[in-house]
Automatic annotation (TrEMBL):
<dbReference type="Pfam" id="PF01288">
    <property type="entry name" value="HPPK"/>
</dbReference>
<protein>
    <recommendedName>
        <fullName>2-amino-4-hydroxy-6-hydroxymethyldihydropteridine diphosphokinase</fullName>
        <ecNumber>2.7.6.3</ecNumber>
    </recommendedName>
</protein>
<keyword id="KW-0808">Transferase</keyword>
<keyword id="KW-0547">Nucleotide-binding</keyword>
<keyword id="KW-0067">ATP-binding</keyword>
<dbReference type="GO" id="GO:0046654">
    <property type="term" value="P:tetrahydrofolate biosynthetic process"/>
</dbReference>
<dbReference type="GO" id="GO:0003848">
    <property type="term" value="F:2-amino-4-hydroxy-6-hydroxymethyldihydropteridine diphosphokinase activity"/>
</dbReference>
<dbReference type="GO" id="GO:0046656">
    <property type="term" value="P:folic acid biosynthetic process"/>
</dbReference>
<keyword id="KW-0289">Folate biosynthesis</keyword>
<dbReference type="InterPro" id="IPR000550">
    <property type="entry name" value="Hppk"/>
</dbReference>
<dbReference type="GO" id="GO:0016301">
    <property type="term" value="F:kinase activity"/>
</dbReference>
<dbReference type="GO" id="GO:0005524">
    <property type="term" value="F:ATP binding"/>
</dbReference>
<comment type="pathway">
    <text>Cofactor biosynthesis; tetrahydrofolate biosynthesis; 2-amino-4-hydroxy-6-hydroxymethyl-7,8-dihydropteridine diphosphate from 7,8-dihydroneopterin triphosphate: step 4/4.</text>
</comment>
<dbReference type="InterPro" id="IPR035907">
    <property type="entry name" value="Hppk_sf"/>
</dbReference>
<keyword id="KW-0418">Kinase</keyword>
């Protein structure tokens, strides 16, 4: 059985290379990806370089615990240093935003991730890639949630190159509809 998954990907150190590496790994593991545009936003919670953020959607039969383990290893393999500080510079940050319609804490992963309703750098790309999907807890579409969202620093959409194409519109290089993937 295949589960639709949405993940947030971010970096503020070696940003382009780290996002490209994350997308390469996701495409190798899961095949077709639904991709949001890439946005630049200021660091939140600390003084640091701006982040690049995006959302990717895919379908997988991989259990949540294995998915989480793979993402943590991928982050570490790309220079992520884990410490006691929650808000810090990151080479690569991959967060599982949703795993199907699960609600609760599973294998140490909060679903859906609370940041969806708080941070524009998560909600906007999520609305771009899966706008008609409903948030599993509040029941509103991500597009409607984005229309109601008013907090946070501004986002700037940037042109981002991956696998010979420019990701500048929702559902970029590897195409998928928000009805199926993610």
């Amino acid at each position: 059985m295949s589960t639709p998954v949405l993940v947030g990907i971010g970096s503020n150190q070696n940003r382009e290379a780290c996002l490209q590496a994350a997308l390469d790994a996701l495409a190798d593991w899961f095949g077709e990806l639904a991709l949001s545009p890439v946005y630049e936003s200021p660091a939140v919670g600390f003084d640091g370089s701006p982040f690049l953020n995006m959302v990717a959607g895919f379908n997988t039969a991989m259990p949540l615990a294995e998915l989480s383990r793979r993402f943590k290893k991928l982050e570490t393999d790309h220079g992520r240093v884990r410490g006691s500080t929650r808000f810090a510079a990151r080479t690569l940050d991959i967060d599982i935003l949703t795993y199907g319609d699960q609600v609760g804490v599973f294998c140490g992963v909060e679903l859906p991730r609370a940041e969806i309703l708080v941070n524009a750098f998560v909600l906007k790309p999520l609305a771009d890639v899966a706008g008609s999907r409903l948030h599993p807890q509040c029941g509103q579409s991500y597009q409607d949630l984005w229309q109601l969202h008013r907090a946070g620093p501004p986002l700037h959409k940037i042109n981002f190159s991956w696998r010979g194409g420019i990701i500048s519109n929702a559902v970029g290089c590897s195409k998928a509809s928000d009805q199926g993937i993610g």
